[in-house]
Specification:
Layout (H helix, E strand, L loop, with lengths): L3 E8 L8 H14 L16 E3 L8 E10 L6 H9 L6 E9 L6 H4 L2 E9 L6 H12 L5 E5 L5 E5 L4 E9 L2 E9 L8 H11 L9 E11 L2 E3 L3
Parallel strand pairs: 3-10
Antiparallel strand pairs: 1-3, 1-4, 2-3, 5-9, 5-10, 6-7, 8-9, 10-11
Amino acid sequence: MIPIYRMQYSKEGTARYISHLDLLRAFERAGRRAGLPLAFTRGFNPHPIISFAAPLGVGIAGEVEYVDLELTADITAGEVLKALSSTLPEGIQLLEVRMISEHSPGLMAGVERATYRAVAKLKCQLDQKKIDESIATFLDRTEVWVERKNKAGGKMKFNIRPGIFDMSGRSESGKIIINVELKAGSRGNIRIEEVIEAFQTVNPLPLAERFILNRTGLFTMDGQIKKTLW
């Protein structure tokens, strides 16, 4: 049996500005410093076998993220957690580690939904009715078009509305808090930045600052039921 460890972690604070490639390197360096028996790919340029659930955009924090790490020796999940916790950079915290079967679905193949929280200070107080009406107006649209770059370097129009599953909001302590559930994964991915920008275009809110974005969860789907990636 190949020992594979599924790790749940958070990426917050200054770590939200670490790119996906730098995050991969951070886990690789942490594994080496911790003295873990990392498994490597074969070929001319071998690298540790580490796979993430879904990349986070630079500047977006992740409260419950997942990464798989393959080792060459069977050690306990608790030992992996202890070893890595002291070697990861500031802002990246391991929450839990579990050993999984080598036949378990890969993380990227399993991700289908993601939840986000967007928070910003308001210039003036908004009542709940105004917030609810703004969100309802946005969700009533059958099309929400955004521009994305294509592989040729040009731009193309893309309708993100089918991938917006839920949206709600409230005001609290002079801030607007918006929660969103979006399509995610290798079979289609909707970016929270696109949704928030489109929402602000349709229903501008009196913001005193830009939204701070957090991904709050990643899920797979069993029919209509959301499940975590364990």
